[in-house]
Write a structure and sequence with these properties.
210 residues; 23% strand; eight-stranded mixed β-sheet; 8 strands
């Protein structure tokens, strides 16, 4: 995974622990269906990153790529080749350690904070056997508005698919809000298929690595 992909206005490279503080900011700034979620996390701006970014960078069983333009980091695609092993580690190690940095419960005034604090100790894991057996990997991808609309998302996912294929992973999946029709169109265009809908309002999309 030591290779770098260059494009006209941005570069994709493997993510490192040194990138994490900036990636936490990107995670927050894209956490509301791709828009800035800062108003929803006024007390704990790092909380979104603790759940969806931090455990995927520089840890065993993870793969991370970042997107960098002339102004700095502007996106990422992070994931794991083995979701079952990842969530076992998250539940036993990462989640409880991160939860120590937050109160037991958040405020009812800010339900997004409250929900994610709960997620650190009790992550909402959807991984039925029929999904895991065919698409064991999963990913998260976010790109700042300034870098959207230039094909970078497509290239980031292609980079991740190539890396997973080289690791012998047969397929990957991701979750998205069922109401996010733009995301559904984007992933469908890239070759993802709808695997199922969950009881909590997400659609699971899946794709083979090769």
């Amino acid at each position: 995974l030591a290779w770098v992909a260059s494009m006209a206005s941005a570069t994709i490279r493997p993510g490192t622990l040194a990138d994490v503080p900036t990636l936490y900011d990107i995670c927050l700034q894209t956490s509301c269906a791709g828009q800035d979620g800062t108003p929803h996390y006024p007390h704990y701006p790092k909380l979104v990153g603790e759940r969806y970014l931090g455990p995927y960078v520089g840890r065993p069983n993870t793969v991370a790529f970042v997107l960098e333009d002339a102004d700095g980091l502007c996106g990422y695609c992070v994931g794991t080749p083995d979701s079952k092993a990842f969530f076992a580690d998250f539940t036993a190690n990462w989640g409880p350690e991160a939860a120590k940095r937050y109160p037991t419960e958040g405020s009812d005034e800010f339900p997004a904070e409250k929900a994610l604090i709960k997620e650190l100790n009790n992550p909402n894991i959807f991984l039925p056997d029929e999904l895991y057996s065919q698409y064991p990997a999963h990913l998260h991808i976010d790109i700042l508005p300034r870098a959207q609309g230039h094909g970078h998302g497509r290239k980031l996912i292609a980079t991740m698919l190539k890396a997973l294929a080289e690791l012998g992973v047969p397929g990957l999946h991701l979750g998205m809000q069922t109401s996010n029709t733009n995301a559904f169109g984007f992933y469908s265009h890239l070759g993802f298929s709808k695997f199922c809908e969950t009881s909590y309002g997400d659609t699971i999309m899946a794709i083979k690595t090769a």
